[in-house]
């Protein structure tokens, strides 16, 4: 009797140890002659990496201090093929999170302590019907504080040649380099609307924007020149986004209509990436498209607008701003800003389009977002999916989006549209700064 009980206890003990080992197995990776296992670190210019043994992609990794230091790997998951995924987490004896610039840069000779555990995959609810969906692959390790690098894999027993992402946002910060940063989710195709882009950038600056981030898949030759100008000037970060090398991206928003692997060149992934990339760099983020301007109508700039809104709503971290269409087919009659020197620059002259479409009674007017990134966990395009505080819809007369584009209500004539010359108020500073940008980009 006693022997049987003992055998049972030993058996249970062994099983527990086995399960624990399977759950969090510690491996020591040695760089050098003694072992062939080497922790490869991704080059900083690489932003998309396949997850071995699957069609999934991993993008970047961040510590989430709001979730007790959990490690979030922003990923693109093929919904139909979701098998168990594992996090391989490494801590270095020597800090080596700075990779060398060459592709597939190898880390220095530091000893790496690595461990693995099964990941929790949180597939975002907004997929618009596409097979590849923005997801958070979460590594919930109680020891998460010590890790500096992570890789996701389908097979934790074969860790040869894994590509590691450095874990960003290691520290909480409460002062920020920028107050207002615009995240532009995607640039793709042969987009060459250079005049509108330069004008928009200069309007952003005058409203108080200090940083603009653009995810670049491809663009036309004149927009390329403008991008280089603003990058050199210092306001712009261009993040390479070669999604077309990995998937067939859709040029539209709905799978049934546009097909392809993923919504709008991965717009939802880049918006979420931008939130974490700038979480401790910017007090606020504006999540809008390249042809949209979030414009305060009752305050001189964004700083004053947010001062008022946060005073009224101290806990709100998500502010929804209504989008309003200014058709590019309707021109201001006076021709005041039809400047001959801009004629050779390709693109729309937003200062000529001062007619705004009315709201339609039974059509929902979509919003874009102005957020405190530290209060958002997941976002979609027009609303957040997971956030920590209250969400405020900002009244139209306080702040709205100026969106110059093809009309939505093309049948309306000028007298059925509203005249809205808000942009003209910036004339004195705006015109010379647009000239400077175009000239120094080599477009005048
Ligand atoms: C790792 O990659 C190197 C070079 O790409 C290759 O020669 C080697 O066989 C790979 N090792 C394993 C275990 O896959
Ligand atoms: C951000 O705003 C604060 C006031 O709210 C100001 O003191 C600070 O200088 C601003 N930072 C930048 C980078 O402009
Ligand atoms: C944008 O991406 C395209 C395609 O990779 C590249 O040719 C171009 O140089 C990039 N532009 C900038 C400013 O990074
Ligand atoms: C354009 O820039 C050059 C120097 O880069 C300057 O000499 C010239 O005056 C500028 N032209 C205009 C119209 O601003």
Architecture of the largest domain in CATH? Alpha-Beta Complex
- Helix % is 10-25%
Give the cofactors and ligands.
2-acetamido-2-deoxy-beta-D-glucopyranose
Provide the gyration radius in Å: 25 Å
| Contiguous helical run count | 7
Report how far apart the termini are.
95 Å
What is the fold named in CATH at topology level of the largest domain? Spore Coat Polysaccharide Biosynthesis Protein SpsA, Chain A
What is the name of the CATH class of the largest domain? Alpha Beta
- Average pLDDT confidence is 89
- Tally of extended strands? 24
Q: Strand portion, in percent?
A: 25-35%
Sheet/helix structural class? alpha/beta
Overall domain count = 2
Summarize the structure.
Helices cover 20% and strands 30% of the residues.
Could you describe the 3D structure shown?
It is a single-pass membrane protein. It comes from Clupea harengus (Atlantic herring). This protein has 444 residues and is an alpha/beta fold. It has 2 domains: 34-168, no CATH class; 178-440, Spore Coat Polysaccharide Biosynthesis Protein SpsA, Chain A. Helices cover 20% and strands 30% of the residues. It has 7 helices and 24 strands. The chain has helices at residues 2-23, 194-207, 221-233, 255-258, 267-277, 302-312, 427-440; strands at residues 25-29, 40-41, 49-50, 57-64, 70-78, 86-92, 112-118, 120-123, 132-139, 149-153, 163-168, 178-187, 211-216, 236-240, 282-287, 292-296, 318-327, 355-356, 367-371, 376-379, 384-387, 391-393, 399-405, 418-419. Strands 1, 2, 3, 4, 5, 6, 7, 8, 9, 10 and 11 form an 11-stranded mixed β-sheet that branches. Strands 12, 13, 14, 15, 16, 17, 19, 22 and 23 form a 9-stranded mixed β-sheet that branches. It has a two-stranded antiparallel sheet with strand order 18-24. A hairpin with a 4-residue loop joins strand 20 (376-379) and strand 21. It is elongated. One 2-acetamido-2-deoxy-beta-D-glucopyranose is lined by residues 160-161.
């Amino acid at each position: 009797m006693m022997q049987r009980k003992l055998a049972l206890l030993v058996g249970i003990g062994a099983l527990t140890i086995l399960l624990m080992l399977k759950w969090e197995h510690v491996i020591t990776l040695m760089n050098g002659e003694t072992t062939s296992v080497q922790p490869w670190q991704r080059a900083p210019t690489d932003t998309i990496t396949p997850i071995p043994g699957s069609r999934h992609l991993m993008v970047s990794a961040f510590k989430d201090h709001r979730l007790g230091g959990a490690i979030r790997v922003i990923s693109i998951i093929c919904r139909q093929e979701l098998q168990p995924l594992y996090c391989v987490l490494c801590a270095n004896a020597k800090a080596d999170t700075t990779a060398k610039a060459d592709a597939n840069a190898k880390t220095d000779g530091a000893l790496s302590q690595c461990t693995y555990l099964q990941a929790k995959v949180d597939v975002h609810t907004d997929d618009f019907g596409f097979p590849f969906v923005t997801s958070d692959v979460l590594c919930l390790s109680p020891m998460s504080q010590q890790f500096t690098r992570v890789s996701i894999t389908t097979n934790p027993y074969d860790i040869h040649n894994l590509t590691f992402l450095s874990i960003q946002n290691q520290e909480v910060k409460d002062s920020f380099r920028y107050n207002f940063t615009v995240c532009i989710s995607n640039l793709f195709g042969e987009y060459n609307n250079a005049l509108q882009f330069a004008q928009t950038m200069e309007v952003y600056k005058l409203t108080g924007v200090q940083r603009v981030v653009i995810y670049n898949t491809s663009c036309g030759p004149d927009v390329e020149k403008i991008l280089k100008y603003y990058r050199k000037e210092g306001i712009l970060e261009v993040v390479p986004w070669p999604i077309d090398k990995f998937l067939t991206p859709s040029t539209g928003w709905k799978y049934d209509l546009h097909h392809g692997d993923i919504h709008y060149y991965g717009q939802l992934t880049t918006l979420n990436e931008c939130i974490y990339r700038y979480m401790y760099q910017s007090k606020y983020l504006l999540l809008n498209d390249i042809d949209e301007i979030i414009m305060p109508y009752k305050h001189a700039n964004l700083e004053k607008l947010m001062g008022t809104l946060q005073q009224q709503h101290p806990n709100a971290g998500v502010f929804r701003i209504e989008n309003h269409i200014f058709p590019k087919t309707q021109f201001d009659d006076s021709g005041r800003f039809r400047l001959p020197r801009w004629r050779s620059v390709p693109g729309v002259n937003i200062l000529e389009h001062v007619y705004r479409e009315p709201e339609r009674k039974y059509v929902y007017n979509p919003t874009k977002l102005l957020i405190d990134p530290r209060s958002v966990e997941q976002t979609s395009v027009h609303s957040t999916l997971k956030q920590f505080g209250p969400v405020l819809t900002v009244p139209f007369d306080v702040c709205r989006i100026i969106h110059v584009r093809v009309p939505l209500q093309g049948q309306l004539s000028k007298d059925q549209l509203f005249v809205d010359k808000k942009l003209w108020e910036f004339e004195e500073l705006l015109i010379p700064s647009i000239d400077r940008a175009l000239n120094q980009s080599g477009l005048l």
